[in-house]
Amino acid sequence: MRRINLKFDNKVAKWSAIAVAVLVLFFISYSIFSLFSPTKEQMYLNDLMDNIKDINNECKDFIDDSKINTEKALKTLPKMREGLYKIALDAGSSKYANEPKYTSAYSNLSKGLNENILLLDQLSAMISNPYGKDIELAGENLKIYRDTSENYYNLIEYKNSTFSLGNSMKGMINETLDYCISSNNAKKIEEIKTAEAEMFISKLNELTISMDKLMINYYEKVMDCRTNKMTYQLLIAKLDDTISKMDSVKSILSQMSIPNEFLPLYNNFSEVVNLYSKYLFDVKYAIVTESVRRDKTDITEDYMDSLYDSSSKTYEDVQKKYKNFTKEYNKIKGNN
């Protein structure tokens, strides 16, 4: 009988040990599970950050082939801002925000959200006015908002990792910077082209005014010499002065910066200038020849007139070409 009781006692002891071991394992497992499972406070914080992440990821909807759909962006960004602002209010009024364990996390979340909202405002401003004079400064501010927001977010534990703005938002920021920089550069190039065009037209206007004053039919002046109203020496001196002034016109013309769209106009004016310079030398030769030979008895007036046949033809060509140039020049000048 004593042998049976001993056997029974051993079974009880064995099952008791197993029960104790199971309980110990249960409590250990529960402790481990509790240790690594998120608390309700952490879960609420994670939910807030999930919402922030979802809002920032909306940026991918208005990036097409690495280009910004500006219309969609300007329509969506204010809604994203409103969403982040609501999260900021919810986080600030949360009962968990003042718990010592989460005070730092909520503080960093609040600061990160504030910079995140400023980031969206800056994106909207830059996309709506990529040609702004202060676009470079706006771009630097955008980078500051990005880095500051990211730094605050990185201080928050999020699902056993750190939180961030997300790749979609970072990509949107980079595309916005590229879009604004390229747009602004295009504007600067256009402004430079406009300034060059205005300078060219202005300088050409000065030269045409000079040409109007310098362009003289010297054969008509020869008639004054033949009737003794003017000496040949004085006429030649006046002609030399005109030649000198034409040299100045040609010098200025050669140093001008010529926008591509005005190259034909420039070439036409250069042709007029060169042709008139040729005329001046031709007519001077004729005048000098006449002044030297006019007193000879065998020189007729028909002969003297014939000295000017070539130069007169050149002068007619000059007048014709200058008239065509002036017509085209006035048309272009009126459009600038």
Mind explaining what this structure looks like?
The chain is mainly alpha-helical. It has two domains: 10-188, Methane Monooxygenase Hydroxylase, Chain G, domain 1 (Up-down Bundle), CATH 1.20.58; 215-334. It is built from eleven helices and four strands. The protein has helices at residues 2-36, 40-56, 70-92, 103-128, 135-154, 167-214, 218-226, 232-255, 263-293, 301-306, 309-334; strands spanning 63-64, 67-68, 157-158, 161-162. The strands form two sheets. The protein has a two-stranded antiparallel ribbon. Strands 3-4 form a two-stranded antiparallel ribbon. Strand 1 (63-64) and strand 2 (67-68) form a beta hairpin. Helix 4 packs antiparallel against helix 5. The longest helix is centred in the middle third of the chain and has 48 residues, at 167-214. The radius of gyration is 45 Å and the shape is rod-shaped. The relative contact order is 0.06.
Low-confidence stretches: 26-36
Secondary structure tally, helices:
11
CATH secondary-structure class of the largest domain: Mainly Alpha
Order of helices and strands: HHEEHHHEEHHHHHH
CATH architecture of the largest domain: Up-down Bundle
Question: How many distinct domains?
Answer: 2
Number of E strands: 4
Spatial strand arrangement across the major sheet? 1-2
Task: Give a short account of the largest sheet.
Answer: 2 strands, antiparallel
- Quote the CATH topology of the largest domain: Methane Monooxygenase Hydroxylase, Chain G, domain 1
Radius of gyration: 45 Å
Q: What would the average pLDDT be, to the nearest integer?
A: 86
